Amino acid sequence: MNLDKINIWDLGSKINIKVNNSFIDFVNDKIKSGYQTKRKIHAELIKFYKIPFSTFKVRMKRGYKYFIDLEILLNLCKILNIPFTQLQENITAYKTRGGYNYIENPKLPIEITPIFDMLIAHHIGDGTVVDPKRNRKPYFSYRQYNQFYMQLYIKKMESVFGKIQYKNPYQDKTRSYCPAVISEIIFNQYGLNTRSFLSETARIPEDILSKERDHLIAFLLGFIIDEGYIDSTCIVIGLKNPQLARDLQKLCHLLGYKSKFTEPKKYYGYLYILKEGVLKLWHDYKNLLIKYPEVNLGWKGQRIEESLKISERLIKRTPGNNKVILNLISQGNFTINEISNKIQMTRQGVRYHMKALEQQKKIRKIGIKGENNYIYTFIPEIKLKER
Fold it and tell me: Is the peptide bond before 109 cis (omega within 30 degrees of 0)?
């Protein structure tokens, strides 16, 4: 599709809509003045869209509370010389035909904003495609355990499309579902399919890489939220898809963010946005946040900001910091991350001092929290003398 704006008539067939009663009154008045009866205009309508007269007559009643086939009203607009835009302005809801969930108070035409492209990043990062078969269209689900990020995801959806109404409210607060009608729009915009969102085969669509800067930044922020972690002044995105990680590095290059790519083992790729790149990214992020509050990085943004503030301090490898760290560990057992937070030093700086202290046999590892997050304890000098 690849349009900057998507109108309701661009969505293809099998879309159902609800419209304002005033618009139905307007259409019925046009029918009466031009064709006298609904039966006469029905004879014209069925040349374009097959529908029994009895069904058509019911659909065109004022106050009809169910969804109407989009084709009925589009073709009536053609016959009666009513602009499609006038119909679109009066749509109050739409959905996929046969679907349960719908968009209320829709934003039409749909604008392809940076948030639209950020949603694609989310669906690649922590999304899955549900393919129900049986003539039903596939749709996205998005898994997010952090409720702040989950609520932001919903706000992103609604900022682009409108209020999403579910027939049955989902009980799982860690998963959100994207109605089939929206999912199809996302698929079609860049010519994507279900394989385009699999973790091992996904790639950044070429059309996105050619977008303006705000779109690229928003797409990258989506990946940072879902797949990134903050390691001192670096942002690291590790993926079981080296080609996708390389795509993200290409995106960083387009944005002017200094980065590096590593592939430490088969089928795994790591993108490192280095300190200079993070500084530029942070500046761009703050500006984008003013335009689109939905891009909020939440606690990861706080971590980035704290890391950048710490890195400005000239204490990273000062010899005297050995004593500061040793004094802290003598009071309890800590990990590098915990020490970094307590004394406001980068984790790289803490690692440098910890390695030296460990070599001097003043501290030792006694356990681990998570992956490679070792717990250190103090070795009293008296024990060293006894040895």
Answer: yes
